[in-house]
Amino acid sequence: LVVAAMAVPASDSTALPRLPIDRVFTMKGFGTVVTGTLLSGAIAREDELSVCPAGRQGRVRGVQVHGGASDQALAGQRTALNLAGASTDELARGMTLAPPGLLRATKTLDVAISLLATAKPLKNRARVHFHAYTSETIAEVVLHAGGSLKPGAATFAQLRLAEPVLLVPGDRFILRQFSPVVTI
Questions:
Q1: Rounded percentage of the chain residues whose pLDDT exceeds 70
Q2: In angstroms, rounded to a whole number, what is the distance separating the alpha carbons of residues 114 and 58?
Q3: What contacts 69, CB < 8 A, 6 or more positions away?
Q4: Could you tell me if residue 181 is left (phi over 0), alpha (psi between -120 and 50 degrees) or otherwise beta?
Q5: CA dihedral (53, 73, 83, 34) positive or negative
Q6: Which of 112, 107, 125, 113 is nearest to 161 (CA)?
Q7: What is the pLDDT of residues 36-95, one digit of tens each?
Q8: Which of 79, 85, 102, 122 could make a disulfide contact with 58, Cβ separation 3.0–4.6 Å?
């Protein structure tokens, strides 16, 4: 379990709307729809949003919260957005919707790692499975102290991701051993 992440600069990341996409589909008569749980901020009809890390932009045509039509979605709410300007081919689980130009995805994270007491020692430059919200990718763990991290211990490290993700300082994520895939 990672207890801190320093991924991208943000003035006040709690006010910025971020929606990790967990499903993408086309609804007859509406077009492209994405669903997820809004992490922070609010999203309303007619808002312009950027798809990270793809960079594609879209406009919110409609908002549903917990299955009912709404003018806006607030942090913590289960949300469905009807997007104009983005097709299902350009969107996927693991991407994040956010305001255009304010945040950017990254492939390098500086983190504090706390290894579970039941895990095997984590070697410097070990490959792991990285999970944050709806995204999943492979990462290389570069321990700042080098060597290896003992079970139950904590240290600072850098994660070098195979695919970019959109995170802000304070976001949490999970690491799993490469093989067998168990949470560490």
A1: 92
A2: 38
A3: 62, 63
A4: beta
A5: positive
A6: 107
A7: 999 999 999 999 999 999 888 999 999 999 989 999 999 999 999 999 988 888 899 999
A8: 85
- Write down the residue that tokens 């979605």 correspond to: 73
* β pairing state of 68-70 and 57-65: antiparallel
Would you state the structure tokens that stand for residue 144, as one six-digit string? 């700042």
Q: What is the per-residue pLDDT for 30?
A: 86
Q: Token pair 């006010």 is at which residue? A: 15
Q: Which residue has the tokens 């095997």?
A: 120
What letter represents residue 53's amino acid?
A: P
| Mean pLDDT, residues 111-137 | 96
Cα dihedral 44, 107, 14, 112 in deg (nearest 10): 160
Residue 141 burial by CB count (10 A; 0-12/13-18/19+): exposed, middle or buried? buried
Spell out a b/e string for 47-63, using b for 16 or more CB atoms within 10 Å of the CB, else e: bebbbbbeebebebbbb
Instruction: Output phi, psi for 90, to 5 deg.
Output: -95, -5
For residues 106-113, average pLDDT: 95
Token pair listed for 169: 């300082």
The pair of structure tokens assigned to 44 is: 């309303």
pLDDT surpassing 60 at residue 146: yes
